[in-house]
Amino acid sequence: MTTFSSLGISKPVMKALEKMGFEEATPIQEQTIPLGLEGKDVIGQAQTGTGKTAAFGIPMIEKIDKDIKKIQGLVIAPTRELAIQVGEEIHRLGQFKGIRTLPVYGGQHMDRQIRALKEGPQIVVATPGRLLDHIRRKTINISNVHTAVLDEADEMLNMGFIDDIRDILKAIPEERQTLLFSATMPKEIRDIGAKLMKKPEEVKIKAKEMTVENIDQHFIEVHEKQKFDTLTNLLDIHAPTLAIIFGRTKKRVDEVTEGLHARGFRAEGIHGDLTQGKRMSVLNKFKNGRIEILVATDVAARGLDISGVTHVYNFDIPQDPESYVHRIGRTGRAGRGGEAVSFITPRELPHLNLIEKVTKGKIKRMQAPSMDEARRGQQQVTIDKLTSTIEKQELDAYRESATEILNQYDSVTVVAAALKMLTKGGRRNAPVTLSSVAPVSVKPAYKDKNKKKFRGDNKRNFNRKGGKPQRNRKFQNKRGKSNNFQSK
Ligand SMILES: Nc1ncnc2c1ncn2[C@@H]1O[C@H](COP(=O)(O)OP(=O)(O)OP(=O)(O)O)[C@@H](O)[C@H]1O
Ligand SMILES: [Mg+2]
């Protein structure tokens, strides 16, 4: 067990950690915070939900001179929602040191952002496009930045972002400290990253699998046309507290969301074509439980930390194994459990094999549930509610009417009628048709690289390779959550 105080953390940050309920450092924090404090460049890789934000946030905060009202720390993240979330976590960590943190992202009023930048934030958490806009307009000064972080580094160094990142880093002094963090780091991308750094130290928290072991992973082989019925049946059986459903395209997300509405589920979609205001309001509704289902493109795949997400469904299998890791990592965070179910059409089975091989995980086959099981699932939800009402007592006001009705009908009939009335699902048969989509195929690059092992290989063999069994370390934070982070 490593306490934060043994890592040489200052009093104000210790006070913040205590307030946040962080008692012990997670393995990635334990290993990278000292390096960060020494000023070393670091490439940090650890599973989803294991505290990478604080791993780079804490040393960054420690190095800020709070009397200098200039941007000294810069974090770059791939999506707006993630920039906001990381900004909030850094703000919490730096609250007693009096550090000003500002998120800067697209879709926000430029004028308002420029005004906020003039107020002298010391840490900026930005998305690359908007940050470059400010650099080009000279409305941001990052010439005093001494610490730069790429969160979701492999995504930031991938084709879509790499040119922007190069341009941004050019505007920061070369003697900076550069930190790269992600749950996934393909070697080619890591090599690109290392070229932007000075003698980087690599910290990779060893784990048997790339995905967190407390996420139960399943797949269902299902034809395209049956996916939607399978989904609603599963939702009835699982009765998730909060669930994220990933679809391949924006149109797909819209269609699945509409279909879920037609069948009586509280769901909203999130993707890049929505206004920023809408994106935020959908996410907020999801966070405070006003909707129970978020249907999303990969815009929500990385980094988002929403407590209470119990289930992730890959309505469409993702193109890259890395994307699979991040998507399912929206559940099973900070040591909690979670369940992930992926829908695979028969032609996509080789793609599933590739995902298993790259992530070194086992995705267990499960059968598509029947309508009958779904109906029982719906009723179970009602029964649970009924049971908890019984346990709470306070039923005296209803006893007289209950006795009257029981004089007329037998008890099973009465309870059955009550269950029927209370059980949702009247709209479960609403017809829903989605536009058809082509199956995902294995990218040629992956195919070539994995050709030999991949073709005749049997899943079992490549799942068993490498890595010793992991020990689990439990610790409880003050909010009462049991954090079962995996230890090294
Ligand atoms: N030492 C700790 N003790 C208790 N909770 C922690 C600790 N460190 C982080 N957490 C909490 O764990 C959750 C996950 O942290 P974080 O979002 O930083 O994970 P991550 O490794 O960046 O995941 P991802 O790869 O999905 O981005 C957050 O709610 C965070 O506040
Ligand atoms: Mg993260």
Automatic annotation (TrEMBL):
<dbReference type="InterPro" id="IPR014001">
    <property type="entry name" value="Helicase_ATP-bd"/>
</dbReference>
<keyword id="KW-0547">Nucleotide-binding</keyword>
<dbReference type="InterPro" id="IPR027417">
    <property type="entry name" value="P-loop_NTPase"/>
</dbReference>
<keyword id="KW-0347">Helicase</keyword>
<dbReference type="InterPro" id="IPR050079">
    <property type="entry name" value="DEAD_box_RNA_helicase"/>
</dbReference>
<dbReference type="GO" id="GO:0003724">
    <property type="term" value="F:RNA helicase activity"/>
</dbReference>
<dbReference type="GO" id="GO:0016787">
    <property type="term" value="F:hydrolase activity"/>
</dbReference>
<protein>
    <recommendedName>
        <fullName>ATP-dependent RNA helicase CshA</fullName>
        <ecNumber>3.6.4.13</ecNumber>
    </recommendedName>
</protein>
<keyword id="KW-0378">Hydrolase</keyword>
<keyword id="KW-0346">Stress response</keyword>
<dbReference type="InterPro" id="IPR014014">
    <property type="entry name" value="RNA_helicase_DEAD_Q_motif"/>
</dbReference>
<dbReference type="InterPro" id="IPR057325">
    <property type="entry name" value="DeaD_dimer"/>
</dbReference>
<feature type="domain" description="DEAD-box RNA helicase Q">
    <location>
        <begin position="2"/>
        <end position="30"/>
    </location>
</feature>
<dbReference type="InterPro" id="IPR000629">
    <property type="entry name" value="RNA-helicase_DEAD-box_CS"/>
</dbReference>
<dbReference type="InterPro" id="IPR011545">
    <property type="entry name" value="DEAD/DEAH_box_helicase_dom"/>
</dbReference>
<feature type="region of interest" description="Disordered">
    <location>
        <begin position="443"/>
        <end position="488"/>
    </location>
</feature>
<keyword id="KW-0067">ATP-binding</keyword>
<dbReference type="GO" id="GO:0005524">
    <property type="term" value="F:ATP binding"/>
</dbReference>
<feature type="domain" description="Helicase C-terminal">
    <location>
        <begin position="214"/>
        <end position="374"/>
    </location>
</feature>
<dbReference type="Pfam" id="PF00270">
    <property type="entry name" value="DEAD"/>
</dbReference>
<feature type="compositionally biased region" description="Basic residues">
    <location>
        <begin position="461"/>
        <end position="481"/>
    </location>
</feature>
<feature type="domain" description="Helicase ATP-binding">
    <location>
        <begin position="33"/>
        <end position="203"/>
    </location>
</feature>
<dbReference type="GO" id="GO:0003723">
    <property type="term" value="F:RNA binding"/>
</dbReference>
<dbReference type="GO" id="GO:0005829">
    <property type="term" value="C:cytosol"/>
</dbReference>
<dbReference type="InterPro" id="IPR044742">
    <property type="entry name" value="DEAD/DEAH_RhlB"/>
</dbReference>
<dbReference type="Pfam" id="PF25399">
    <property type="entry name" value="DeaD_dimer"/>
</dbReference>
<feature type="short sequence motif" description="Q motif">
    <location>
        <begin position="2"/>
        <end position="30"/>
    </location>
</feature>
<dbReference type="InterPro" id="IPR001650">
    <property type="entry name" value="Helicase_C-like"/>
</dbReference>
<dbReference type="Pfam" id="PF00271">
    <property type="entry name" value="Helicase_C"/>
</dbReference>
<comment type="similarity">
    <text>Belongs to the DEAD box helicase family.</text>
</comment>
<keyword id="KW-0963">Cytoplasm</keyword>
